Amino acid sequence: MDVCGTLPSPSSPNDPGNGSPRSSAPASGKAALGVDPFSCLPLRLVLLLVLLAGQAVYAHAREEKEKSPSPPQVRLIQFKGVRSLSTGELKKIFTTKEKRFKFFGKAPLDEEVLGKDLDLLVKYYQSRGFYHARVVSHKVLPLVGKDVRVEIQIEEGPPMVVSEIALQVDGAREGPWHQALRSLAVLREGERFTTPAYQDTEKRILRYLGDWGHPKARLDMKATLDKRSNTAQVMVEVQTGPLCHVGDITLEGNENVADKVILRELTFKKGDRFNSTKISESQQRLFNLDLFQFVDITVENLESVDSTSIPVRILVKEAKKQTVRVGVGYGTEDEFRGQVQYEVRDFLGNGRRLQVNAKASSLVQFLEGKVLQPHLFDAKSSLTLTGGVRHEDQESFENRKVYVSPLLNYKWSERLSSFLGYNLEANRLLSVDLSKGALGPIDDENQEYYVSSLLMGNTWEQVDNTLNPRKGWRFLQSVEWASVGLGSEVDFVKLALEARGYLPLRKYGVLAAKLKYGGIQKLENTTDIPIFKRFFVGGSDSVRGYPYQRLGLLDRRGNPIG
Predict the structure, then answer these.
(1) Domain 161-239 is found in CATH 3.10.20.310
(2) How do 73-80 and 147-155 pair as beta strands?
(3) Which CATH superfamily is domain 73-155 in?
(4) Kindly report the CA angle at 250 between 249 and 256, in degrees rounded to 5?
(5) Is-same-fold flag (245-318; 403-426+433-562)?
(6) Residue-wise DSSP of 374-428
(7) Cα–Cα distances in angstroms (integers) from residue 515 to residues 416, 475, 543, 560, in the given order
(8) H or E element at residue 318
(9) Which CATH architecture has domain 245-318?
């Protein structure tokens, strides 16, 4: 066996040959048996080989990195020569994007992708009526570090202008349909010819005829473009087809929901003149019932030229009969919170829904039941009956309330809806934590207050999505009037106004803003407004720059008065 290292000499005092006992521990700096691993030639060679191999791997990685450096990052895309279209509109069609934030983030530049974007840019210009548009040049200019600026020079050229729109309806150049159909055309004589306007004109004419009982109408559009004179001649030939009526209405897929619940939401019935808009409205109404996962209304027999009876097939897929939703969270104001909702659809039939909601946090605990009855008198009216018990442990008071409130809702249009209702509640003011000078004449602990009031209000809105708006606005107004004439022990009128706005910020999300105003005035023999009916402002749900309920009047100890 080849052992490298230094062995004890025969004259060593630890040599058992001189009669001295051998030490059980090796000498300092030596391995067992007195072997120094760093003085061993084979071990030194192994360590040297490992170091050389590591250096080779590092050099190779560095060489590969130098061969394929990180791509430039696009900070800006600038267009020159753009006069008729917006630069923001042009950037949207590009696959090449700018950095979301100018000084950080990633937006790698790919020359091949940029070349395809430039080709697409020319086609986009042509679809907007500029058939002579071309990209004169493009430059990639360095900025700071890896950041670059892409500069694109465009020559738009003259636009293609509509010189004539010739309309024929059932072979005639004039007739009862012509004035209405001409007004529907998005294309206008003397204006720029664009592909979207050309396509929309066809859709609008067919939709209009479908609303007037002609779902079998046929339309043939032709456009003759002269690039020399930059003029476009448009020929529209319309065949209205026969006047049609709604035929048999068949329902499929509803196992638990009664047929009458579906049929009453339809804005058409058998024998009515066909109307394509009413088909769409009926589909949306069925969705709004929240009873179905899927609703499809199919208009059949459109290919038959002779038949004037149009059968309609309605296919639905029912939602789950019962659902349970559970949520938990934590907030700096209400600390740990939990919420449970139990819902029964088509509760006792007739399309109504039952909801039971429970919530608990350090501030509020409640148990509430709600019954929603759609189609009370007609499709625009509904009834909501709410009742429950609510316990509030706020900064300055503790109150327990038992309440019931029926509300009649009416939807005047897609934008405007109103409600009228009644509220009856019994409040027990369990405690009031205010200094003596701030206490009101009716802020008595363990005192019960009955409130009987009328409720009314309106909602006026124009949003893209009712449940999850990203664009549009809402205006909400509500009034509560409590009077001794209604059996109330406190008399007041309370007004609340609220405006909300939603603005999409491209890919960054939605900018939402809310402005709220409220006022309350005591009436008749009431000397003061009870603390549980006052306004409290401040915190995450109102003015976020202030602590919870601390914006407003405070007593000497800093507790909110309301």
Answers:
(1) yes
(2) parallel
(3) membrane protein fhac (3.10.20.310)
(4) 125
(5) no
(6) --SSSTTEEEEEEEEEEEEE-SSEEEEEEEEEEEEEEE-SSSEEEEEEEEEEEEE
(7) 19, 10, 10, 22
(8) strand 309-318
(9) Roll (3.10)
Helix (H) / strand (E) element for 60: namely helix 41-67
- Supply the pLDDT for residue 68: 54
Running DSSP on this structure, what letter comes out for residue 321? S
- Cα separation of 40 and 416, whole Å? 92
Cα distance from N-terminal residue to C-terminal residue, the chain: 94
Which tens digit of pLDDT belongs to each residue from 507-523?
Answer: 678 999 999 999 999 99
Distance in angstroms (rounded) separating the CA atoms of residues 172 and 110: 56
Per-domain boundaries in the chain: 73-155, 161-239, 245-318, 403-426+433-562
CATH of domain 403-426+433-562: 2.40.160.50
What contacts 529, CB < 8 A, 6 or more positions away? Answer: 440, 490, 492, 520, 522
Dihedrals φ, ψ of 472, to 5°?
125, -160
Chain center to CA of 170: 46
Q: How far apart, in whole angstroms, are the C-alpha atoms of residue 490 and residue 520?
A: 12
Note the pLDDT tens digit of each residue in 122-162: 999 999 999 999 999 999 999 888 889 999 999 999 999 99
pLDDT of 28 reads 41
- For the whole prediction, is pTM greater than 0.85? no
SS3 120: helix
CB 278 within 8 A of CB 267: yes
Question: Within its chain, how far is the Cα of 171 from the centroid?
Answer: 48
Measured CA to CA, the distance from residue 285 to residue 287 in angstroms comes to 5
